[in-house]
Amino acid sequence: MIHQLKFRRLEKYLFISVIILNLVPVLIGKYYPTMDGAAHLYNSNIINELLWSGNELFEAFFKFNDLFVPNWIGHFILSLFNLFLPAFLAEKILLLCYLIGLPFSFRFFIKSVAPENVAYSYLIFPFCYTFPFILGFYNFSLAIILMLITFNYWQTKFNNFSPKQSFILFSLFTLTFFSHVFVFILVLFLISLHILFSALHDYTCRAKKMKILLKETGRRAWFILKTAFIPLSFFGFYFISTINLERSYTFLGADKLIDWIEKVRPIIAYNANIESVYTDKIFYIILTLFILSLYERINTTLNEVRPAGKRKLNLEVKHILKKSDFWLLSVVLIAVFYFILPNSDQVAGFFSVRFALLLFILLITWLSTQKIRRWVIWFSIIFVIYFNLRLNVYYAQVIKDLNNVAVNCEKAAAHIEPNSIVLPINNSDNWLAGHFSNYLGVNKPIVILENYELATGYFPLEWKNKSIPNLLLGDHASGSLSCPPWKTNKNNSKKAIDYVFVL
Fold this sequence. Notes:
By secondary structure, the chain is mainly alpha-helical. It is built from 18 helices and 8 strands. The protein has a 3-stranded parallel sheet. The longest helix has 39 residues, at 374-412.
């Protein structure tokens, strides 16, 4: 018993140590540049200008989205801390919330699902620096944490429907919606599936009568509908507002999707040739754990359905269906979505890599519910941690170079007067640098005429097209230029572009 307590204490310290080591790529430079990260930082500064400064120039260019749109949580965190901290520290706090919150939320999740196999919580570390994360999909990344917390709360409290539990679950649903609509729908899907699977399991085990099961299932479904009604209404309004947008669906071939699974595409961030050396090995470790777990699952079932001393199998469903099979069913359904749904609809994209990420997270969850030898688990985890650290070394090298560019962009803002209008021209050949011009405005009130968020309709801010001045670059009106996303307004005043920024 004493040795077990010492091991548990040491294991906790080991987990915290791995978290700290995993923070190195984010802490190594002033900024952690991602493709969309600079735009998020810049727009958080615009939000503060609109709310607290009464900046007339900003009020002529920008407005808050009229809809209750998702993608608010990341901007809220950045705006809050950017009120009294420089932008790079506000960004650091957001990233630390994610990189510390994801391992801990997954660990608590595994403890709830399979407390005896908490070692599987280490397998989340390679899935921290994901492809969506380095794209700057901060709201999606934070929503994964909220998904784990929400489902964990549901499965521990789904028999207790007190007002307190209702309010907490409502708050979690609302926060998840305002983080990312994709994950919000997914967590509702998983909870609905859990309600149906629990009823099926109880029925096949003959634990309760059908009448009682139907009553419990209806009560749980009604409880979810009530607690999620307001965020579901927000989703309904948002869906209706976007239903008329032109969409062009893009599908990926089955060969490519299979290859993405084999290479663990969700965690290939910058260079597939370099990173797949390690991600391939992580895949084979997970595959080995899956094969061993599946073998043990089948073997256990056969032992239960074969009465002692008899060759004939007693194939009753009650011996076959286990509560842990819910997670395997979830993996199968997410895999189906992964293969049949489009990767992009022109309005939003990267669905396939998001489904692949969620597939691996749910697969690890199912693995944790199975019983295989502990030495195999820890042996696998040691190698996964090693390969993850090797990936982090590579990430740190890439971030150093990107950080230099981001810092130089920020320094260039020192030569720009506040409340100026800047036309950026991007001549960089780095695919991640598309929005780096936004670093000019993360700490200073500057109108930058490159802001992809404002044209999408699913972020907190939009262009205020009706009041934007007619912009002039020399003697040329903005309508003849390709960079600004609006046309010349006949009734609006004229205003000169103050600076041109070339990256």
